[in-house]
Amino acid sequence: MRMVLLGPPGAGKGTHAKRLANDLGLVHISTGDILRDNVKKQTPLGKEANNYMDSGLLVPDDLMAKMLDQRLNEPCVNKGFILDGYPRNLSQAKTLDDALGKRNMEIELVIYLDTSEPVIIQRLSGRLVCSSCGANFHITNMPPKQKGICDNCGAKLYQRNDDKEETVRRRLEVYRRETAPIIKYYEAKGKFYSLSSDGQVETVLNNIKQFVKGHNDSFKV
Ligand code: AP5
Ligand code: MG
After folding, report:
1. Each residue of 14-35: pLDDT tens digit?
2. Which of 33, 120, 127 most suits a substitution to test ligand 1, by most atoms within 8 Å of the C-beta?
3. Which of ligand 1's atoms lies nearest the C-alpha of 142?
């Protein structure tokens, strides 16, 4: 199964992609996580991407295309994957189709996590991320067992730079202007499905799993 999780910032793409990938035996490809890892390691890509990310803007398409290509070259990707954070505009949607086409693959399913704006703001303003393993928590919705400490690996939790209120607003504007138009692109291909993501994590996750199973009977949920 090759699928895209699409949705505005705070929709829960990362939260659900990690769980789904684990439960369904797929690879999780998060372009945001790869970029943050590069920023942390101060690689040339990280240095170039940092300012765009901190201001809530998209990193240029050519850098993203190279990154995608490298990730798709990894052999583990052949078992199937969930894309989280890519594509982000029409040009990236076409780049993705080309990159997969060269490998005799295609996207089978695009699931849109439909989320209302007050929910987005509440989620992002309380999000906490692990500085080591990247796990997501939330101050009230999904609090860690010990304040400020990751349940999985014991490292410190931090607030993402781009989760400041002003930057969240910019990310939402960028989402509406550049990312939302790709919904039509996937609708036209008959691959687009919308599910509500306003509910509790377990409810949303189960809905996604049931839906994916309906598309692919080899998945047990
Ligand atoms: P990226 O990391 O992809 O950020 P994003 O799309 O803005 O999405 P988020 O990670 O903020 O939200 P999410 O949907 O993953 O929600 P989450 O699961 O964390 O990108 C960051 C930046 O990198 C971009 O701005 C850009 O600069 C750059 N970039 C990345 N990809 C790019 C690309 N392709 N092209 C160009 N630039 C690119 O959930 C949020 C919070 O809510 C968490 O705290 C979670 O615990 C909580 N939560 C989630 N679901 C629920 C629920 N159902 N109930 C209660 N709480 C919930
Ligand atoms: Mg994310």
Report:
1. 999 999 999 999 999 999 999 9
2. 127
3. 46
